[in-house]
Amino acid sequence: MATNVAAAAAFLLLLALSISQAAHPISDSHRSAAFDLFSAADGVFPSLEDAYEALRVFEILAIEKKPTVSTTTCQRVLENLGSSSTLKDLFYALKVNGILKCNVNEEVFKDIASRLKGTVYEASSLLDIYYSVGALVLIKDQDSNVDVLLADADGIFHSIKALSQSDGRWRYSSDNPESSTHAAGLALEALAGVISLASSEIDQSKVNIVKNDVVKLFDSIEKYDDGTFYFDEKFVGGDEHRGSLSTTSSVVRGVTAFAAVTSGKINLSGDKILGLAKFFLGMGIPGDAKDFFNQVESLAFLESNRVSIPLILSLPETVYSLTRKVQLKVRVNTVLGSAAPPLTVKLVRAFSTGAKDSAIIESKELQYDAESGSHVLDAFPNNVDVGPYVFVFEILLHDSDSEKVYATGGQIQVPIYVTGIIEVGKAEIAVLDSDLGNVETQKTLDLAGNDAVSLSANHLQKLRFSFQLATPHGHVFKPQQAIFKLRHETMVEHIFVVGNTGKKFEIILDFLGLVEKLFYLSGRYDIELTVGDAVMENSFLRLLGHVELDLPEAPEKAARPPLPPVDPYSRYGPKAEIIHLFRAPEKRPPQNLSLAFLGLTLLPFIGFLVGLLRLGVNLKNFPGSAVPATFAILFHLGIAAVLLLYVLFWLKLDLFTTLKTLGLVGAFLMFVGHRILSHLALTSAKLKSA
Questions:
Q1: How confident is the model at residue 686 (pLDDT cuts 50, 70, 90)?
Q2: Who contacts 661 (Cβ-Cβ below 8 Å, separation ≥6)?
Q3: Are 296 and 30 a contacting pair, CB within 8 Å?
Q4: pLDDT tens-digit profile of 294-305?
């Protein structure tokens, strides 16, 4: 019976590798991930910056079910609008208020605006100007009655421009000679804020100079081979690391903000804008909340920018079957998945990756299906056979009065795998005479059926097997796998690759030259054939039958067949039970005899006590003063420590440890013993003199 386990595994592997690396618009998977990354503990975010990033992501993704935000967030907003807050805290408090509408009093806005105007004129660093100007812009958007216009906008504009470098990058301050790409994004965003807050129009020549700076900045953009563009930080100021995502996101915010408040066009290539969109979309779903926010907000700016809006062409599937006659569908959306403007999608050409100079299709327009929102190719042309192809699409925008400029990326190449059922036929297996090559036994096989053959041969004969494969259009098909296997009854396997001889696949086994490889093992060999390919829908593993081989006896020095493979999971099974017999306990003396011996060991101690009584030992001469009494007690404790050391030496201590410890205790005894004996001698001398 035909099986396709091995071939199906190969198909799935190649299918995973064949998925296009082209960018796909934001999908529901991003919305699902937003709940996991921006969940607030008890409705409270660690900071207002975190709160703003979460709220902004849910606002961009148009998620109705927003995370629960505690009323304490608005309380923190009001607290950070006070005079004691830093510029950064004030900036993010206003950003959060712009989303939550925390009912801030107009007088509070006026007080903040008054303070910020003074700060922006005195600021010496780019970050201070960025937060001050950004906060004034936020107040302007949240309360139009507050006066936030800058009287000397030209001066502030010049102060920011003075930090720019010739390559389009910016410095963080005049004291810092190093320039930064990330700082360039902040500077452009601050300049955009200054233009929107200017009480009079900014000199257009200064604006044009900044536009040229933007062009220079984009001249240093990095590029991958697939057309993806990104910015990388060449200098990291302080201890804070700026990755390519953070840096690119900063530039996108700055450029789109600057383009939104200026008239005229910034001369940027649409391919670079599209390449930036591919960079953000190509990273999938970031696992970090900050990276997720930078990705989503940057895509939102790219979707609404005045330079050029990138359009993304994507295919729901990249594997199509000739058997099922499926339609090829192409979708064109903005980066956030919004509907594209009126356009035409053309299939310019398609070619096999094995012969790139042969075009299969020439300029075929796809029909738009309003119900699915896709452009559809009803059926593959007859000259498209199974195999890997590259389809080249082109997006053509219709004439429109809209002021929006779109970036389509020109011709877009998409790899596609076309699958189908491969016809298997003319399978023959024969036993040949080794000398003349005459056929002694020949049988035909139906590889789609269940029939099996039974053959016999000796070491002077050959085995020949051949078959043909054809595509649905009748072309010769060359699979990735064509394996012929012989398995001995002892489970020793031998694998051979079936070669291609043009129109058919054929293998000839000369048993005389294979006796050593077969380990001189006579007996039954099962014959098995495996044919598989990623584009072959009927890949199979087929038992063809068996052959009885009569081989000569093995010489003495011939190699032995390998041991049968050991099941790797057998080591996790139950082990043999360990039976251990303990040594029989030795005979012990009777209990009464042991007690008698214990009594004898106590006799010396009893004799010691009797001796003390005979000597008339008493405590009358024990010193009465505090200091002599202390030395007397320490002396007796030292004697007890020496006796205890003897006991420990008998039980567990070795000689070297005992001697080292005895030396320390002995020195202590000499000191206290000398003091107490000196006291006793002095006392005795006083008594004699009296």
A1: confident
A2: 645, 653
A3: yes
A4: 999 999 999 999
